[in-house]
């Protein structure tokens, strides 16, 4: 039996992005959901509001796709995801899966906009990654100081190691200009590096090959983080991770 299509309409209305979802959310249609939501992040909205009024059915396991999307948005650009206008049945499914811990649910678009406006903004440090030997020491210093300032010193050692791997990956396999972002929100530390190569990193690839794109270093990233991933952008990609929480 063919799977019903999922249609996602994106509306960029700075400082917000709106994604209207129509159709069935299941494992076959979640790639379109991910593509649409992640596609908004390159515009760096303050929040992404997801209209669920048009969802006609779900496979509950597919709803967990919203969790990594929320982590990706938090890492870059430090945006929240907010659901709204879900049917009572869908709202119960989201509650049963505890999706609300990561993506809050508002009654309608106006309530979602009010929720986004009232959220606490993450503490962020953004910098351009230079070519040369100062790139690693500079990234390490930024992360160490941010952890100390925000009371996350317990994360600092692993965070310094992780941010160096992200920077090395961008320098060796990415295309400049390269930008890094470190942010703290809800006691989680998010690290991200944006570059202009479309080649996506792959865990466990051979070092020094574009196909692997820093895979051995990503083993370290995976070991010391609670989540990591890569978000394609129109002009390259963002590699991100989360520590703590």
TrEMBL record:
TM segment ranges: none
Annotated keywords: Kinase, Serine/threonine-protein kinase, Transferase
PROSITE patterns (UniProt xref): STAS
Keyword Magnesium tagged: no
CDD domains linked: HATPase_RsbW-like
Domain of life: Bacteria
Domain STAS: 19-95
One Pfam family named in its UniProt record: HATPase_c_2
Record's keyword annotation contains Ligase: no
InterPro entries recorded: Anti-sigma-factor_SerPK, HATPase_C_sf, HATPase_dom, STAS_dom, STAS_dom_sf
PANTHER family: ANTI-SIGMA-F FACTOR RSBW, ANTI-SIGMA-F FACTOR RSBW-RELATED
Protein name, per record: STAS domain-containing protein
């Amino acid at each position: 039996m063919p799977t019903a299509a999922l249609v996602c309409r994106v509306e960029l209305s700075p400082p917000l992005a709106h994604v209207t979802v129509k159709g069935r959310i299941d494992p076959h249609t979640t790639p379109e959901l991910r593509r649409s939501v992640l596609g908004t992040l390159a515009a760096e909205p303050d929040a992404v509001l997801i209209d669920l009024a048009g969802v006609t059915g779900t496979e509950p396991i597919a709803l967990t796709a919203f969790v990594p999307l929320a982590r990706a948005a938090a890492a870059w650009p430090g945006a929240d995801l907010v659901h709204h206008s879900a049917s009572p049945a869908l709202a119960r499914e989201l509650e049963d899966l505890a999706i609300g811990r990561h993506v809050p649910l508002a009654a309608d678009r106006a309530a979602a906009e009010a929720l986004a406006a009232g959220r606490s903004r993450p503490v962020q440090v953004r910098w351009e990654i230079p070519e040369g030997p100062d790139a690693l020491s500079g990234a390490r210093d930024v992360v160490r100081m941010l952890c100390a300032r925000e009371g996350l010193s317990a994360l600092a050692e692993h965070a310094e190691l992780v941010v160096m791997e992200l920077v090395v990956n961008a320098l060796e396999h990415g295309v400049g200009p390269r930008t890094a972002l470190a942010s703290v929100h809800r006691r989680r530390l998010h690290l991200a590096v944006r570059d202009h190569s479309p080649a996506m990193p792959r865990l466990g690839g051979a070092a020094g090959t574009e196909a692997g794109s820093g895979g051995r270093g990503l083993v370290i990233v995976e070991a010391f983080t609670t989540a990591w991933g890569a978000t394609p952008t129109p002009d390259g990609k963002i590699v991100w991770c989360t520590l703590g929480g």
